[in-house]
Amino acid sequence: MIRIGIDIGGTFTDLVLDDAGKRTTAKVLTTPDAPERAVLDGLAELLQATGKAASDIGLIVHGTTLATNAIIERKGARTALVTTEGFRDTLEIADEGRFDQYDVFLVKPAPLVPRRLRFTVPERIDAQGRVRLPLDEAAVLAVAGELAKAEVESVAISFLHAYTAPDHERRTRDLLAAALPSVPVSLSAEVCPEIREYERVSTTVANAYVQPLMAGYLGRLETALAERGFACPVYLMTSGGGLTTIETARRFPIRLVESGPAGGAILAAHLAQELEAPHVLSFDMGGTTAKICLIDQFQPHAARTFEVDRSARFMKGSGFPVRIPVIEMVEIGAGGGSIARIDDLMRVTVGPESAGSVPGPVAYGRGGVEPTVTDADLVLGRFDPDTFAGGRMRLDVALTEQALVSHVGAKLGLDALGAAHAVAEIVDENMANASRVHGVESGADVAGYTMIAFGGAAPVHALRVAQKLGVRRVVVPADAGVGSAIGFLLAPIAYEVLRSAYMRLDRFDAEAATALVAAMRAEAEAVVRQGAGSAPLATSQLAYMRYVGQGHEVAVALPERPFEAADAELFRERFEAAYAKLFARMIPGGAIEILTWSVTQATAVPRPPAIAPAPPRPAPAPIGERRASWPEGTRTVPVYRREDFAVGAAVDGPCLIEEATTTTVVAQGWRASLDGGRHLVLDQEG
Amino acid sequence: MTELGVVERQIIWDRLVSVVEEQAQVLLRTAFSTIVRECGDLSAGVFDVEGRMLAQAVTGTPGHVNSMAESVKHFIAAFPPATMQEGDAFITNDPWKGTGHLNDFVVTTPAFLDGKLVGYFSCTSHLTDIGGIGFGPDATDVHMEGIALPFLKVVDRGEVNRTLIEICKANSRLPVEMEGDIYSLIACNDVGVRRLEATMREFGLTDLDAIGAHIIQTSRQAVLKALAEVPAGTYRYAMTIDGYDRPIELKAAVTVGPEGVVVDFDGTSPQAARGINVPLAYTTAYTCFGLMCALSPRVPNNAGSLGCFTVTAPPGTILNARYPAPVSSRHITGQMLPDVVFGALRQAIPERCPAEGTSCLWNMTFRGPRAGNGDDRYGFAITVTSNGGTGARPTRDGLNATAYPSGVKGTPVEIVEAMTPLLFWKKELRPGSGGEGTHRGGHGQIIEVENGDGLPFELLAAFDRIRFPPRGAEGGAAGAAGGLTTSKGRTLAGKGFQKLDGDERLTVLTPGGGGWGDPAARTPRLREQDRTTGLEG
User: Fold this and answer.
1) How would you classify the pairing of strands A234-237 and A57-64?
2) CB atoms B226 and A441 under 8 Å
3) DSSP character at residue A45
4) Sign of dihedral through CA atoms B51, B55, B61, B63?
5) What is the per-residue pLDDT across B258-270, written as a single tens digit (0 to 9) for each?
6) What is the value of ipTM here, to two decimals?
7) pLDDT tens digits, one per residue of B410-441
8) How far apart are the C-alpha atoms of B446 and B450, rounded to whole Å?
9) In which element (H, E) is residue A77 found?
10) Where do runs of H (alpha helix) occur along B1-114?
11) In terms of CB atoms within 10 Å, which of A143, B134, B267, B371 comes out highest?
12) Residue B46, SS3?
């Protein structure tokens, strides 16, 4: 089957056509006002390049940052919230914290729904799902009138404890639908049936906020594809790493927020299998940020909350939490465009401010004044000023050196080269520190992991970051430039249902738990079957458990059979084992509680075979040589072209390996070879 | 130093910061105490052989800003470095030489490289139960507040002192957590020690002298540079707060000069009969936090930056309480100190000092029986974290329902209701509570709660700003005072245990922050915003 993966990013739309393993790629500029235009242009380009017809395509898989961008740019629908009386401000009160301890001037992000569009109705359900106050239907109808008057385009309904009893939310939706038939409604009990009212309302509101925009886009895309003769199914990539149907995406567009990076992580997990690397750190460094994801036993670490629009320096807590299944990543403001400065402590800072693509680094000569990471890389000899980006742009070395000296070097008594070293070392140190601390947060020591490096700037910096972390193998995969789109094609059709139902293990109710999980399983299966037909499905069932009163839950795998009373003991054993693995100890006899349950149904994805070792082949001839600098000194080193490597060919560092979009920097003491999957593998020698 | 040396110095400094962040993460993840895990009530730092702090993790509590830093010097005094050996670790919970109350256990571990002492790691976290009367201000001396550990060796060359651990366990209602938390403190320092060793080997360092001198010198210079922009002089301020049973006056003279800032709390009220007294170490912590916020928010905490600040208070005042004064709830008083610092500095740098805010946490601690005769013999007990509004800033409104200076987060209502029979009928912004001004104070909250089982329950009140609300600045009005009323028309006291009937609903009004600047100068746009939000009162 011929399959196409499409990743709509902020700047570029990447496409990859896979015909039985043979890949053709295309990159077109994103068209933000009507993103389907870029998709259709890219598809046409691919069909032309491969000589295929639209009807030959068997599957299209699609990921997009549209939902994220709509939130960041505040371009979503005019959204209203209907919530429990007495809780109008839950969305605004948030967690009562400050994301920056010392900044008395900090600004919290304004909620997506302003107070005047937050309405309340008398009703109350308690933690056990009992009705403490019946829904006041007259009040709902009165709110409907207000909503009509305010001309809202989307409505979120989020009542207290609706995760345990959705009846009031459903009834409210029905009453509103009668009064406002054309306005879409998002229910918290459907979007995010999980305990913790702020996270749930935040997620529901975000879903409602992007829903009309996404539904419109998906509808137009569907129509346009049909008009052009594409008859194949179209799936959407979710932030959790599974595929879903257009229908589900339309209802729960918030689940699409981080689909691009998820694609990259899926590809990294796939590569981990090919490379037989059980512990992988995927490192994606682009123009503005670097993203780090841990992949253990071929599974990317999962999280249940993602923060959209971290407005302040990518700081934790400066965005909106959305509680959805998501591949866990840490993102820091470190990319090729990150700007270097000197702070009050006479220290070099790099990022999070970025020169972006306009004006871009100083070297581009487009008006950039402050030096960036890319500028430092140029001065360190990592790029050829004459052939950068395939020769489409001549880099201005003199201007770059001047900027590095005047903005960084002068204050520290460094020349251009010294300043460039400082900038590169600091940004590499920042990324290494973020990786190390992220590892600790996940109970992992990243030394000894295999690093997989994606994104334009990653191959330039990966090896130095690896050295700082004690990582001894770095892999720069083939087609890394369209990695996310390739990852989409490797993902299963999957759906995860999460639901909170509080239960203490010492009062374990096997019957209720069995019924709950069965219902969740049916719900997940119904969604997956829309796309998967009768394909065999794999199930994973988890409970998120904690010691009573502790803040963080631990995921515990559950047996796939009806539960019995005696399972409380099994749950305890598994929880204690998982807890001990994460925290290196447990509390003997500590009371345990379950907060949330999770069921995932997914089509099975066959494990790819390991890449066979390639017989050694001679090193390619260098295309030239260049003066390049490392912390230990400057020397003239050979420059190779990646496409000149035969499978099995190897070269020793120090050297540079160029390809159209990036350069892989190989340090002394490292050896670079091309494996059977055409991945460039860098190994520390000795 | 060579050219590369400039970069290397910064890298090593960054690495030390990363090491203490990692150390703090380990503590955060392995601590059993809920207040540590949820609220970040912990601290971690690395020190040179002189006991000077080189880096400290940024965590949820300013109360440890330099109290932990100073404690390392006390450890060195108690255990001469020449007697320390690899694998040793030391412990104390001395409120006066540690971080202000017995709940905070401090562990200090010497770091060795090739057999030579090169520095120390220290950490502290809040243990949930240390015996005694329980966490709250009700004790009349410190010995009622729980077990006291002098400076002791808890690990001897890798061997944990089991006798000590058993004594600690026997003195806690939560012995498993007590042991776990002590081990957690020991383990987090061990991680720091290992990382420091790796870092020193990577950069070929044999001691921390040069890097330590660089960090301290650079940070000190940065603070002094910031001070140079502040008109020199002595600035005074006084603020009255509710206190336990009588009002307390907090009085400060803040002297800014080219060599540093001296804050003198002379004239402050005498220490109180109950546990809201503050040891000087903790007074210093919150005072320095306020100074850093106003003067040098981007300079990291270390011996260089903190060394620019001197804090004194006459012995026997509530801000320099003497042994054996009760000190358990010293945060109620200590959290007010940044407001006092801002009030004084406002005379010199009005553009950088917010008006007074709620400042103390409005944590509601409830306990009571459960319905039925299940296995919960002790019924339920829970602390619900909540906050009022912060003071207006000179350039913008205060923050609604936000913790300051503490960094804790609010507790979700649904979690509380899942764990207890409590039922909340309201938790919403409190209209009109933020003080008016060109910039309005942050709004407080209205919280209504009852026992959903219809049984009587108790509130442990530890609230302030009920008699004396946060005042405005530069012509701004005061924020609304806090208050506690019930559906039966009763008004409850701001401090102490009080009973509520099974059919009685409690209303908690958290204070609003003070306003900043003349209300008449508020822009029409902001006025319009006040009107459309329905929060103008």
Assistant:
1) parallel
2) no
3) H
4) positive
5) 999 999 999 999 9
6) 0.93
7) 889 998 999 899 999 999 999 999 999 999 99
8) 14
9) none
10) 3-30, 34-39, 67-78
11) A143
12) strand
pLDDT tens figures, A374-385:
999 999 999 999
Separation in Å, CA of A679 to nearest CA in chain B: 30
Report d(CA A90, CA A159) in Å as an integer: 11
Topology adopted by domain A494-603: Dna Ligase; domain 1 (3.30.1490)
Tell me, what DSSP letter sits at residue B505?
-
User: How many angstroms from the chain centroid is the CA of residue B461?
Assistant: 19
Q: Can you list the alpha helix ranges (DSSP code H) found in A83-191?
A: 90-93, 137-149, 167-179, 188-191
What is the CA A193 to chain-centroid distance, rounded?
22
Task: Indicate the pLDDT class of residue A551, thresholds 50, 70 and 90.
Answer: low
Contact residues, chain B, for A587 at CB < 8 Å: 32, 176-177, 180
Gyration radius of chain A over CA positions: 26
What pLDDT does residue A396 have? Answer: 94
Q: Which residues of chain B have a CB within 8 Å of the CB of A595?
A: 418
Cα–Cα distances in angstroms (integers) from residue A562 to residues A569, A570, A630, in the given order: 15, 13, 60
Q: What are phi and psi of A42, to 5 degrees?
A: -65, -40
b/e per residue A98-114 (b: at least 16 CB within 10 A): bbbbbebebebbebbbb
Determine whether the interchain pair A421/B4 forms a contact, defined as Cβ–Cβ distance below 8 Å: yes
Six-digit token pair at B62? 């300013």
For residues A471 and B356, give the distance between their C-alpha atoms in angstroms, rounded to a whole number: 50
Residue B135 has pLDDT above 90, yes or no: no
**Pairing mode, if any, of strands B233-241 and B248-257?**
antiparallel
The span from the CA of A52 to the CA of A48, in Å, is 7
Class of domain A2-71+215-256: alpha beta
Task: Select from A93, A440, A595 the Cβ nearest to the Cβ of B25.
Answer: A440
* CA gap B521, A233 in Å, rounded: 61
Judging contacts by C-beta atoms under 8 Å, the chain A residues touching residue B60 are: 101
**Alpha-carbon gap: A525 to the closest alpha carbon of chain B (Å):** 29
Domain A75-210 in CATH 3.40.50: yes
Nearest to B429 among A92, A124, A436 (CB): A92
What is the CA angle B291-B293-B295, rounded to 5?
60
Find, among A410, A411, A405, the residue nearest to A346 by Cα: A411
Spell out the SS3 assignment of A529-583.
HHHHCCCCEEEEEEEEEEECCCCCCEEEECCCCCCCCCHHHHHHHHHHHHHHHHH
Residue B102 has a CB neighbour count (10 Å cut-off) of 25
Domain segments of chain A as ranges: 2-71+215-256, 75-210, 494-603, 624-684
Give the C-alpha distances (Å, rounded to integers) separating B86 from B83, B118, B158, B193: 10, 11, 8, 10
**Chain B interface, best mutation among A81, A87, A98, by max B CB count within 10 A:** A98
The Cα A425–Cα B299 span in angstroms is 21
Q: What are phi and psi of A390, to 5 degrees?
A: 70, 20
Strand, helix or coil for residue B117? strand
A2, A18 Cβ separation under 8 angstroms: yes
All residues of chain B having their beta carbon less than 8 Å from the beta carbon of residue A93 are 400-401, 410, 427-429, 445
B424 beta partners: B449
Closest CA to B215 of B508, B423, B500, B15: B15
Matching residue, tokens 């129509």:
A223
- In this structure, what are the phi and psi dihedrals at residue A663, rounded to the nearest 5 degrees? -130, 135
Cα B162 from Cα B418, distance rounded (Å): 38
pLDDT in tens, A424-461: 999 999 999 999 988 888 778 899 899 999 888 999 99
